[in-house]
Every structure is written in C-alpha cells, then in structure tokens.
C-alpha cells in the first residue's frame, strides 16, 4: 500500500464522517452533536423551568428582560468508527498493483481512518482474513497522532484464504465494541452470503456503508475464446467458452447481483456504493461519499 502525500492528507483533514442514525458517544471530540449538553459553546436559549440549574441562567438577559432564560450549550461528542476490510484471496486481484482491489481497500481504510482520527472519533479497523485467523484488529484509538500507526498496520495487510462474510461479520458484531458508523469494503465474493452478517451488525446498532469493490476486468471481462478459470480462493476450476452471448449474459448477471444487494441494503437503511478499483480513491472519498452524505 502506498503512502498518502501531504496534499492528500491536508484534504482529508478538512472532512468529517457523518452519522445520521447512530448515537454518538460521551467523550468530547471535534464534531458537533445535535443534542444539547455541557460544552462551553453557546447554542440557544429556552425558558427557565423550576428545577433547572441556576448556574445556567443568563443573568444579563434576565436584567434586561426581567424574564429567566436558560442557556443551551452545544455538546461535542465522539463517534465510534469501524472500518472492515475483506482481505480474502479474491481481493488480491488483479496483478496490476494500481487496480488491485486489496490495495485500493487498504488505501480507502487509511483515508477514512485518518478523517476519523483527526476529528476526534474513536476508530477501529479490522481485516477479515479468512476462516482460520478470523479478524486482525487495530484499535480502538482516537487522535491524529495515531494516523501513522494506522497506516503502518494497513501496510501489513495481505490477502489470504476464503472469507466467510457472514461468519466474520457475526464475530465482529459480538466483539467490535461500541456501535457506530461502520464501513465494510468487500468484493462480496463470499459463497455463504452476507445477509445474516449485515443483519447482525444492524441489530447491534451500527450504521453501515457497504462499499462493493470490483476490478475493471470483473465488471467488463476483456477475455474471449476457450478458457480454464480457477477460483483463487478454493482452487476449483471450470472450462468455459467466452463469446459475445456469454459475455452479455455475464454482464446481465453482474447487474442483477448488484441490484439484489442494493435492494437488500436500501430496505435496511444501509448505504450501498458499488465501485470499480479503476475509480481514483480520491474521487470516491471527495465526491461519491459526500454526495451520499456519508462525508461532509
């Protein structure tokens, strides 16, 4: 995984991750909550009610209007941010490093993690690395000083094995800590499916963004003729003939599959973002995720 340059880091530091549904925590970060609390920054007034803390009475307003008003203060709170990266063998494709799905996913995890850390959020990153190992986890940590440690962790990410998304997501729902804003970056190539795992995370209280990452040749295969295909995760092979009719059927099946995932996500309030690894990560973060109000 390549490092971010200074210009990219400065751009990321101007952004904030947005939680529309999940409840924020109680530690004070750099974000502003819609709730009213005890920070020193003024938000609004309301009429005094018997039992209110007199220390929050605005005596200057009382002297002018001869009516008691309570100062409402804007509370600063942190958000729990969870970034899950599918690190199964199928993510290590294609061999072209610039288009490699795992490299892209790790860069994206670094970008999202840096945004969270620099705005005072509590960030956890987990690599879903196969049935045997389960999860490789970093965090939870907060503070910009931890960004370098996060990038060092992500550089150790390597694809291996067959990830059972349902199993990995169920495990994370039990061990992932405080519910929050959760990003799942995966090619979704999991024979056992994904629905039960996502449902478990939702039941736990997470607000989920699913980034469905495929490589350009998975979206539009450049191959033709008689071929022997080998599953990179299971080793299973199949001999096929790719002609225009077969390719058209493949594209239609891919479209149907993505629509099926999108429908499942939409019905449960999950943000679904299908993306190609040919799309620059900067465009995904700075444009696509902002358009979906996941980042501002």
Elements, N to C (H/E):
HEEHEEHEEHHEHEHEEHEH
CATH superfamily of the largest domain: von Willebrand factor, type A domain
How many domains would you count in the coordinates? 2
- Share of β-strand residues: 25-35%
pLDDT < 50 runs, ≥5 residues:
32-38
Structural class: alpha/beta
Number of helices: 9
- The counted number of beta strands is 11
Mean pLDDT: 84
Main β sheet profile? 6 strands, mixed
Approximate helicity band = 25-40%
According to CATH, the fold-level topology of the largest domain is Rossmann fold
Radius of gyration, whole Å:
23 Å
Describe this entry's structure for a reader.
There is one protein chain. The protein is an alpha/beta fold. The chain has two domains: 6-15 and 79-291, Rossmann fold (3-Layer(aba) Sandwich); 32-76, no CATH class. 34% of the residues lie in helices and 25% in strands. The chain has nine helices and eleven strands. It has helices spanning 6-12, 59-65, 101-118, 147-155, 165-175, 195-204, 216-219, 244-266, 281-291, and strands spanning 32-37, 41-47, 69-76, 80-86, 122-128, 135-141, 181-186, 207-214, 225-230, 237-242, 271-276. The strands form three sheets. A six-stranded mixed beta sheet has the order 6-5-4-7-8-11, sandwiched between helices. Strands 1-3-2 form a three-stranded antiparallel beta sheet. A hairpin with a 6-residue loop joins strand 5 and strand 6. Helix 3 runs antiparallel to helix 4 (147-155) and helix 5 (165-175) packs parallel to helix 6. The longest helix has 23 residues, at 244-266. Residues 32-38 have low confidence and may be disordered.
